[in-house]
Amino acid sequence: MISEKLSPMDRFEAVCADPYGLARAAAAQGHRIAGYMNSQAPEELLHAGGYFPVRTFGFTDGTQLADGLLQSYACTVARGALNLMLSGGVDFLDVMVFPHTCDTVQNLTDIWKRNTDQMRVFALSMPVCMTGESAVRFLCEEFGRLRGFLEEECGAITDDAIRASMELYERHRAAMRRLYVLRRTNPGCISAADVLKVVLASCLMRKEDHLPLLEALVQDVEAREPAQADARPRVFVAGTVVQRPEYLAAIEHAGCVVVDDELCTGSRAFNFEPVGCDDPLESLARMYLARPPSPSKHRPGFHAGRYLVGRAQAAAADGLIFLLTKFCDPWAFDYPHARETLDAAGLPSLLLEIEQQPPPSGQFETRVAAFAEMLCANRKEHE
Amino acid sequence: MSGERVPIEATKTCMRLMTEYYMRAKMAEQTDQKIAWITSGAPVELLYAAGVIPIYPENHAALCGAQKKAVDYCTVAEEHGFSRDICSYARTDLGAIYKGTSPIGGLPKPDFLLCCNNICGTVTKWYQNLQRHFDVPLLYLDAPFVHGEATPGAIEYVRAQAVDLLGQIEELTGAPIDQDKLVETFRLASRATELWQETLDTSTSRPAPMNSFDTFVHIAPIVVMRGTQACVDYYETLLAEMKDRVAKGIGAVPGEQYRVAWDNLPVWFKMGALARKFAERKVCLAAATYASAWAVEINHEAEDLMRELARAYVTVYINLGLDQRVEALCAMVAKYALDGVVMHSDRSCKAYSLGQYELARTLTNDHDIPVLVLEADMNDSRVYAEEQINTRIDAFVETLAGRSAAA
User: Fold this and answer.
1) CB spacing of A127 vs B144 below 8 angstroms
2) How far is B200 from chain A (nearest CA, A)?
3) d(CA A21, CA A36)
4) What is the value of pTM for the model shown?
5) What 3-state class would DSSP assign to A29?
6) A149 touches chain B (CB under 8 A)
7) Strand partners, A34
């Protein structure tokens, strides 16, 4: 059990140290648990159905079990999650939801389904093209299908229950956005590794349990004195999933300070606001479609490079670090033009390929340190 | 029948047809006729009906691969920041664009792009890059992946987009698409598709008159000219020749002993060597999931043609989940009386390849079908481990021999 007396940050840390401990304990007490693969999942619906939603991260030592079912050219996000399931790490799940994202997750969904009889698996189709009313209608229908799938087990999910969950989730997202604002204005008020732990814990705890701790943490961070003119170069971090805080710790240890991010385990999970409609499913659909497109999506006119430049400049970043998971095609396709656009805007960037299971290598930190030195030199030039 | 392989006559016609197709497209670059780059799984019928010339970067990449030029272009794309881990078709074409050349002198520039993600999510990203490079409109058809059965919502979603697509194409060409022309184009497409399926079906005969290495060549017209009379004419010729070969007992592999299916894209840069390797072992690749992917039936007489288009294009083989792929593979093994399946685990194609280990396991354990998985790539010869692959093929043929002796 995690002690109630710990500070919010200590609580989050304890959750990260035993990622599925809370869910497992809740399952043992008879609660329904719903797993989900990525930040595209409409968690609100799962929550409204009385489920404890948890995100399946490959917090395992390796991918040996998964390697028999997925080629080595599948990313370690996919292989890690599959390994987690195959090793029995989430055998308490009642349902598992796979929102469609990339080619890898598309096939992982079926592989997962064919290799477990412990949980019911739901493949949630989501529009890849994020514009147009036909996409809204389709997503509403998909959310309706998911609702029906859950209701088979949990009974009727009322519109009011969905609205209540949406409110709770919006409060939670607002608190996360607030934490990010604080970090942008006073970087160093909380370390990047700690921010990631807050995010990871929010995927592993009930939102109603996470929220009060998060709000207390935000209050505490707000009260912290601005650091004495932090001289470290300010970096913006972009990429898919980072599930090991060590990567961000290494970046800050090497001399940079992280001011903001565009990560699936970061701002992408809460950087959007509610859309009001009479039908709660339509509100959800419109909200999800209005999000900044992830690299696996398509929105006519959207330019990933310009978007990143805008975000990095808004955070007054000196440079940007790409933390791209090896074999993540959507990001790999966005990288060349994103880099070009950053260059043109005078924002230096560094590409670092990462894997989800092993901790960062010594070389990782060396490369960040060299980048930090370059950013410092740039700064002096401009002074 | 044993002895020398009898070449397929129609191959020359196929080559001529494709050369003329590329020449016409090249010449159109100087005219008012619009050119659109299109993904291989997209509804090309709409372009032909609108008088737009479709150009297939995928076909072009395969052509570069077959001429062993792909790596040169891939390297250029990599120098531009594209990871070696992404699709080698995309790298080949992007590299050719940056280099401004290719074995056919580069592709004619597009006036617009048409991307349909029913073959993979990779094309979405690839075409976004093309859009930024050429600064031309990108038309996009989002075809949701089908786990189990296509939902009515998914079909309706694609139908609605297809209707919009027609309007967008009309706007770009500045002329309305004639309804009769549209129906006629679909009629021609569905006729060509039938003929292609019938042609593939001739390989149910023993010996098979053509094998996958042949179909990978003869597949080009059905992909790029579907919806034209020339395409229909071509497959009538090819089918007639195959029927003639069946009647005369001419096999693709002289002395055919074993029959297997090929799963996934070809290894373009090793077509000749692999064809020889399998033929020497008397193994005929009598069927291929890749070749069948373009045998999707469309009813051109359907009342709502756009709904029919949606249904057909959403349910192409590679847009279906693993349960459906197991069914399709088992049906293929039964139909063509196959002894096993060869799976090309194509590092470039995650959509096609991830899941093959599960398919292989299921076919072997639940259906007693031997499976050989070869780790390779369709265009990037740098990841091809020749000796290892040859050894594995030899071992697989021994397995087939053992099973046939025991039977």
Assistant:
1) yes
2) 28
3) 16
4) 0.96
5) coil
6) no
7) A53, A95
